[in-house]
Amino acid sequence: MARVKVFRCRICGDPYIGTRAPEQCPFCGAQQRYFAEAKDWNSDEFNVSLSDVARKDLEAALELEIDNTKFYDCAKNAAKNAGDEYSFAKFKALMKVELEHASAISKFLKVSLPELEKVDCSTDSQENSKEGWERESRAIKSYAKFRDEARESRLKEFFGALVEIETDHLDLHAEDLQQKQTKLINN
Length: 187
Ligand SMILES: [Fe+2]
Ligand SMILES: [Fe+2]
Fold this sequence. Notes:
Layout: E1 5-9, E2 15-18, E3 35-37, H1 52-81, H2 85-109, H3 125-149, H4 153-186
Antiparallel strand pairs: 1-2, 1-3
The structure holds fe (ii) ion (FE2) (2 copies).
């Protein structure tokens, strides 16, 4: 049997133990190619000297991630109250991933994460999936712009990875919304 090793995700910095790097980071959702063996870890991954544009873009990204974390937290609780375990699981996972993104961004900015106050959302999980889809679309647009603006290769890579991850989330919402629609048509 293959022996386990310690890996680290270069997008969120979190460690992972397994025989190989996971297909997607269980913490931030980054693809397998962003993993490095922990013994080869570059301790300067999050020490990037930031241009004014990079700082402004990272600050905007942090606000976006915090905002989406709070939204998914509300959506997760609403799904739980409605007894919708699938949506509860989906929104909870999304909340954790977005919080991980906020935490990675805060490492570049050298700031601590703000308190997460409660926000309102719909009591209906389908409405929340729709809003989630819109939020992910906005995030993808912003991160594609930040990726293209970045002069720092590390930030280009980081924002590029976020575009991929948020696109996975977008597809997930789209699939759920489509399935719901197909059910309504067939019933
Ligand atoms: Fe990660
Ligand atoms: Fe995110």
